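Team,

Forwarding the record for the chain on the shared tracking sheet. I've put the sequence and predicted structure together so nobody has to dig through attachments.
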Amino acid sequence: MKPDAEAIRKAVEARQDEILEWAKTLIRFPSENRPPEGFEAEAQEFLARECTALGWETERFAPNEVEGIQDHPSWLADRNYGNNRRNIAARWRGAGGRSERSILFSGHMDVAPFEPDHWKICRPYEPVLREGRLYGRGAADLKGGMAAAFWALKILKSLDFEPRGDILFESVVDEEFAGGNGTLAGRLNGYNADLCILTEPTRMEICPACLGAFLGDLTLWGKAGMPYMGSSIPNPIFGVSRVIDYFKEWQERWREANSHALFAEAGKELNVVLWCIDSKTPDEFTQMGTPLLTRISWIVWCHPGMTEEAFYDEFRRFWSEKAGNDPDLIPFRLELDPTYHFVKPWETPTGHPAVQETIEAYRRYSGIAPAVGGAAFSCDLGIYGEVGGMPSIILGPRGDNLHAPDEWVLLEDIFTLTGIYALLAVRWCG
């Protein structure tokens, strides 16, 4: 049986209460990523049982168990997988074999830590539905999208759909904090398809592209001590106040020098995020006085097509000029150190059949012509596209307060995406 949009719509409507309760169950698992540790195990085991119950071929594997992965250039070292942190990959095998088109629905089970603990609507892992919004840590990023993908396929099973091509469902570990090792493990372990849908929250926009991210530290090194009897010691904290101004200048320059058609609308400008300032050195007692150093941690986003080499050539030249000419910075030694690794941007051409089929499934199910643009955030899309060799698209729900208190996802979008994903699977693999 090959269900149409109307049959799928009726089935989704009939299962809405179940979908909601299932999404709440997923949110209740505190599957936090706290590098180098992660706590996805219990949630992943729940998901594995759910997949197995549907008769899918289900595999569990830790990222570091995949042969050769630690030699791959996209591998991020110094993450711990000894806490039973395992990917879950399930395959609904199609009747037509490898000659038929296949699809992968993928997401990550890890969520950002619940801090800062200023939650007001609910506690982080006690989900609450209020005025159509489902609150809880991970509700938007991205357990809401994962619930939609899982239930899309579960509903197709209940409608006796028999795919011609394979349908894959995957939940990876260690995506947050510029991780990517779980996603890389899935690709190197062979869970690839002719179309990949990543369920990150895009506010219902079809996004065949995402931004890349460079992450690093800028450190001003000076001389520690307490100013005494008329002597003075240049303070790197004051120096960093100038650095912050220059980061604002860099952001304006960076935006003016770079453009991309999928990121042209307001709100999708390239950003710089400064996320930590620290004057402590590891494992040392900090004296009350002028610190030896001050370090500021930064993220700079980029469009598809940007390379690491081109970025750092320009970035280092900018800071070399500032450090050598600004009187407030000359007393210090300025160091730039990349941290984590380059989270690569990605773009699947909008004219690709995979993108066009996704647009058509969205339109046929919802009755609305979808917006198509770039996702103004960085994620693992480049690993799916480059390493997995797949046309890769992000499509997920509306929500807000990602990585912040009172994170929420719009319940209506979970239901709508359940139907869109199901119809796309039918059209692509049927």
